[in-house]
What we know:
The chain is α+β, with helices and mostly antiparallel strands and 450 residues long. The protein has 15 helices and 23 strands. The structure holds ligand EPZ.
Amino acid sequence: MTDYNRRAVELLGGKPMVDLGVTEAGIQKAVERLKIVGGNRLRGSVSPSGAKNAVLKLMTASLSAHNLCIIRNVPRIRDVETMIGVLRGLGAEVNWEDETVLAIKAPNDLGFCAPDELVREMRASVQVMGPLLSRNGRVKLFQPGGCVIGQRPIDLHLKGFQALGAEVVEDHGYVYVQAKKLRGAEIHLDFPSVGATENIMAAAIVAEGTTVIRNAAKEPEIIEEQNFYNRLGARIRGAGTDTIRIEGVPRLYDREIDYTVIPDRIETGTFMIATAITGGDVTVADIIPEHVEALISKLREVGNYIEIGEDWLRIVAPNRVKAADVTVLTHPGFPTDLQPQITALLTIAQGTSVITENVFGSRFRYVDELVRMGAMIRVESRSAIVKGVENLSGAMVFAPDLRAGAALVIVGLRAEGITVIEGLQYLDRGYERFEQKLAGLGADIVRDRI
Ligand code: EPZ
């Protein structure tokens, strides 16, 4: 009898169900899930893996290269494996040289259509468009749909390509883009879209003349791509600001490059928030503290002590944080990819917090799962109003997307009793050895299969 049925007998008496080999979650199927016993304070030191949202773009940028690209500090996560499939589908050679080292070599006769099923699986596949356009002048792509966090159009990407002289045709769910010659242009983005900034930058590197992207995204991952392309012989300046200048060059270098990716700022922030909710004391090492400045400020505001070093920080948390409002904005504002996690923390804060999501259209789908654990949250339009409670109770919950999964783990670390989290196919997209790293900090967390 499962723990939940035992509880049912305690509360209601009698025989809860005839054991037909089914779980409360439905007909028995072999699924992986995380099982967490809440209450342990996290202690010790942990380091994040390489930045998922940078690595994926350096992998697509390698399609523009005329020689071998070695990328180091690559996390072993599902999205990287999917992107390996996308690049191989286009004809590139991609191999793991070591535990965290990828070697990528794009042939001259690259394909121009990424595998549909992989594009459907991972939106980041869209980022092959810029490199393929600059390399071969054409790309056909299955139009990526929205996902659980909201509409995910690519209109800004396509408008940017058109401004550079490409012809765009959308037909029967596919996008066809081709350009005999790409010409530099002045492009003003309606929204500082990360993906659009990256794709336009990639398309402009060998365009004739100079391209200026205004209202560009300023995320640290954009700087990574600028550095990577410049190592390949491109001439890009201004990444990290809202104006990026790309001086088109006739051709990139023919030499090999060897590039080490920055640490993952969202994974860093996830460990910081996990420490905060458990009243722990953790050092997060091998990081770039400036990349999590907005979170440091917010965690200090709610009562955490944070000491900052050259490439590390130490967070010492109170037993219970104070409430605070959070406004999600594009970088350097509070990052949308830490919105579910900070909301999870504030469910047990002293007082009421309002979290406003200004980047994605519906990134509060996970709230229902937190409410099942006893959280008091009301979603109104773009905001979640969170009335802090003393504590939450463990439950069987489902992670609808990657960062929501992290939020459920964070709450499970604090909640009374057992929390079982299904939907690991999402969590494994972006976190490498997540439960092992948390267990290393003293969390009572295991992955099991039912
Ligand atoms: C990147 O997605 C990240 N993904 C996301 O991380 C991150 O949340 C997002 O940037 C914002 O920081 C990767 O890097 C692989 P956007 P991206 O284009 O590029 C709208 C995670 O959990 N928009 O900046 O898709 C769009 O609908 C993931 O690691 C248009 O309207 O984000 C959204 O509302 C989730 N038209 C907003 O802009 C367009 O053409 C931000 O999107 C493009 C975007």
